[in-house]
């Protein structure tokens, strides 16, 4: 279970990194939406391996094939099926994993839970799954074109941008392989990742996401609050360890008299420590949040692993992996955010001021 | 929509702070569970207003009345209905809110979304709703008595415990009104909250939660990962702005070679930066996470508010409110964690190594 | 599990016939709906025991108490909690059932499944549960006042009206205790039920339901077809054994050239063997269906029952029961139909020609 | 919405009859189930067009391709993706339908609801969708091999078997193209269908389904009763107009003293008018139900149709269609029944006598 996200705009996915294909079904996409297929592909290309020297050199064309639900360029209101075929599998690279469990990987937990696993390339636990999310996110973005979603890398290891998002030029995000809109910092991050990669090591980082031009009213309290669904979506991404929105953890140190966002007469607020959400419902101000990624567990170093029969052995990491996932995770964060926003946009059509 | 949490152990709730009663229905509670009603009440008492000088002095007996689903002391497998009657409503205290929107409250967003709201005491947005969660959590805890859940206050404003949870004595949590297991720090926090209260101000804080003795295998990837559901549940609590588990945000600064949790031969790990969860599934190690609470928005000071007709006026905050919510939120965090764990425990009965 | 119906207009219920109360929560009711509470009570009165000589003589005031979600006469968009207290329980009447299983009752299956049951008055299996449905149905009707729902008794045992619904005067439905709009036939049915009752026996019957003024477009294929959800709802009523809509079982004997509903130029059809639904979506014509009720299993005769320890003994039926449920089931059929229609009306706001 | 069936064993589908492929995702299939792929294909072959002279002569190989979730012959507990490519599309056959609505088809309602439709071959409304159900049903059957599901044609038009299922030899079902186990009647039905086909007309019929060796306890009251879910599933099949189980509509004419199923000492019953289900839960006796199919709407005759711009014109039906769907619907009925039974089997693992 658990292979679906969303209630009205619902994505269900399948696929292992070394199976024939990954894919998904979008149920609940409204009809009559013009779909720009090139845009979908361009979003996939942003996530694709092999884009730059600092990401995995695996070669995948990652071409999505839509099988239903789009007719003469528009959605029909029926379910949208799609697949992305796997091409560049080097399954032999993973033979050494058949009987071993890597530290901080899901190998062990899947094996214990299911008693059975496709060990090749991580199987279902591989972040290759996120290719499905990017497809659905690219459809979602086309349903709510007025809402602007920009994610970017705000830290890699200890290196971080120390200015608020309001001072960031989103146009610079795609100007460098790190997807950090501070060009100087981006260069430092790139150097650092290159160095980490040479060591066969990995490093974590933080992605900041900003959502602008959001209508007032998205979110369904009590248990489907807008920020709670965004948080859950982000925590679904491989390697994510934390989520905060608005003031986040730093709010805990503040007094109410400092933290409260005083109103302007038009209902906007002078500050926005709330992060654009009050009581689980968007208030029309910018939504912003930060997503914490741990370093990737797969090292291209020697490391102690656990064997099926309960021994610890040393094993050399192999395969093609990212030294730092945050650059490639930027479009993934955006895709999930877009899906959540569409879901609540559809829900709001039902309940808004009936 | 959105008034339900859980898939197999499912709580649906209702209630406004100044209505006749709050309550809920638990659907999916297994049969033949012996229910200790005194325990349920004792959990409610931990959440109750008026327990100490540093919390709101509202008086509510908060007695839960079970209406169905429990027969001769045991659950019957049918839905469990319960109500908690409201007693100490001083609705007149809220007349001034009828036509105004307080900063950083949900007044404005509810009004915009629904075009209609029960303004008395915050209505549905009041944290009084959490009384329902504590009831369901107290039932949940009795389904999984082997799993130990301990939450505690780890920071209030700038004051924080700087030792890991492993060095904390959980027996001291209830020894002081702050629910901080470091007794010296607890005294400082209490003084600080008392001072803040005198100023009519409020302050934020952090709750740490530790879950021990968890079986391997709880969690349903891809989109119902154990930590993602915990995160979503915690982000549902009023005033929560962030969630992190295991290494959390500090993991982002680490290298993989530092962060990876090496195995012991028995499948346990030497470190636990993963926080007891790999790939969304519990690995048998302790689960631990931190929840960030902003300062309560309601101040007993003068503050600018927005009126219905778009003017900014100064208004004196009234009513009985907590200067710092984290002490009373401790049982709420535990209750939600218990519900999430039961939900996955039931799910695991279906899918575990079939 | 299973105590909820609906996806956007969702009712979750609880309650045993001899517990303190029954009740429910409606999640997803739109805001700003004016609620006529007297109408809700009048619908409950139609379902109430003791209305006439041919129904059970149990005395229950069946007063609904709304606890939340309605403020100053209008819905607020938050969840609506309600309870109906039990009053006239004669639990001792059921002591003989503690250790026995009645034929064609759910005693045996509940006991086997849950290993535990509230045997008093049938517990959760009692049709007293339907009081919750009538409350929710009465709210639902007020959301879609333009849609007209009329159910009536079309057969009792072998006695049946042999004219199509188009020739029936719905104004006569409430003119007699059987709720059969053919007054002459109603008198025969009443006599027959009276006779059956004297014998301590029971009898089945059929309810026909007609829904008029339905907008085109309600229903969500593939698996949430309008007629499939209506069918499922009706099959949820105690004692129901069958459901057919439009031509129903008689369609099976027809040729396509006879059965097809030819169009008029305005999109209406000349005949309506389709029963107002094409491909699972309403086509704007009248929806009509028939619901088959078996005779009530509880007889006030001697009957062989099974004991807990596997013996067959003779037992005299006791308690206050209906000799024929169809008259009291009429408002229940309508209530479920109203809930299904509202659910699809809300869904259609999302997906209709976006 | 509405493209999913099941709660724990959940099938979500996509596909139009003239798109690239149909397919689905099974979420919630337990791990470690050995899957016989030849059996899956053999079930598809039972549903396939072109099997005999009395069904549509369209040629489709209907080969299923599994893309995930099965590894080394066993399920892994992850989602199972599959596709069936379309091959024998003659889309030009449907050009005449672009601007017209056929009587008793979903053309009109889809167009009104979605404002957009793939008119080729019925698009999403085509019964070709059921190919997905047969795949999922064939997986489901392998999870519960002990439960025996047999469906057969019991009537075609006025021709019907007049003996109870207990007297039927299920081994004869596949002995003839009609799938009627009464060989003499089967011959008559075949002749009749052949004649109807020559006339370019169609005819309805009834399928009876018998489920044997069902464990006690399947079904989740109140709103997920076993028979209600079976009913809903059957009502999802194209052309179905009615569903009855156990005594069905004939129960309405009976007295309780005739209808009640008296117990044997072992908990079985002497009669089984209940149809193996009490209170929505299986009681261990045979489950049996009947499904009513109307005649197919597409005639290969001239017929009046409605045009997009509101005119009635005469149109000659074209394409390759079944004169009577019941023979090919037999494996579809079984597939849906298998899915429903697996869903409740998994649910029962959670709740059965905890």
TrEMBL record, chains A, B, C, D:
For the keyword DNA-binding, the answer is: no
Q: Name one GO biological process term.
A: aromatic amino acid family biosynthetic process
What residues does NADP(+) bind to? 47, 53
Q: Which UniProt keywords apply?
A: Amino-acid biosynthesis, Aromatic amino acid biosynthesis, FAD, Flavoprotein, FMN, Lyase, NADP
Q: Which GO terms describe its molecular function?
A: chorismate synthase activity; FMN binding
- Gene3D superfamilies the record matches: Chorismate synthase AroC
Question: Organism's domain of life?
Answer: Bacteria
The keyword Amino-acid biosynthesis is annotated on this UniProt entry: yes
Name the GO cellular-component terms. cytosol
The record describes the protein's role as: This reaction introduces a second double bond into the aromatic ring system.
Q: Assembly state and interactors?
A: Homotetramer.
Protein's name according to its UniProt entry:
Chorismate synthase
Upper taxonomic lineage: Bacteria, Pseudomonadati, Bacteroidota, Flavobacteriia, Flavobacteriales
Q: Which gene encodes it?
A: aroC
């Amino acid at each position: 279970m658990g292979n679906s996200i969303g209630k009205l705009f619902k994505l269900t996915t399948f696929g292992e990194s070394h199976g024939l294909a990954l894919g998904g079904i979008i149920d609940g996409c409204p009809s009559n939406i013009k779909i720009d297929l090139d845009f979908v592909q361009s979003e996939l290309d942003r996530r694709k391996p092999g884009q730059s020297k600092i990401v995995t050199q695996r070669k995948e064309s990652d071409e999505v094939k839509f099988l239903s639900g789009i007719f003469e360029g528009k959605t029909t209101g029926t379910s949208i099926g799609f697949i992305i075929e796997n091409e560049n599998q080097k399954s032999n690279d993973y033979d050494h994993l058949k009987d071993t469990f890597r530290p901080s990987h899901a190998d062990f937990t899947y094996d214990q839970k299911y008693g059975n696993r496709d060990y090749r390339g991580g199987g279902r636990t591989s972040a290759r799954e996120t290719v499905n999310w990017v497809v659905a996110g690219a459809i979602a973005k086309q349903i709510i074109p007025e809402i602007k979603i920009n994610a970017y890398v705000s830290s890699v290891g200890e290196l971080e941008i120390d200015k608020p998002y309001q001072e960031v030029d989103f146009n610079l995000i795609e100007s460098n392989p790190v997807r950090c809109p501070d060009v100087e910092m981006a260069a430092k991050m790139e150097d650092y990742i290159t160095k980490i990669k040479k060591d066969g090591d990995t490093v974590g980082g933080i992605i900041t996401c900003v959502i602008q031009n959001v209508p007032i009213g998205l979110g369904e309290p009590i248990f489907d609050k807008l920020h709670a669904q965004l948080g859950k979506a982000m925590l679904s991404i491989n390697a994510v360890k934390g989520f905060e929105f608005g003031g986040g953890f730093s709010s805990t140190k503040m007094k109410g008299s400092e933290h409260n966002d005083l109103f302007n007469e038009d209902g906007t607020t002078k500050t926005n420590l709330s992060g654009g959400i009050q009581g689980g419902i968007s208030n029309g101000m910018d939504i912003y949040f930060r997503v914490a990624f741990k370093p990737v567990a797969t090292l291209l170093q020697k490391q102690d692993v656990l064997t099926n029969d309960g021994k610890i052995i040393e094993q050399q990491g192999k395969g093609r992996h990212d030294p730092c996932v945050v650059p490639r995770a930027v479009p993934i964060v955006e895709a999930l955010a877009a899906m959540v926003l569409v879901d609540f946009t559809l829900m709001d059509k039902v309940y808004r001021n009936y």
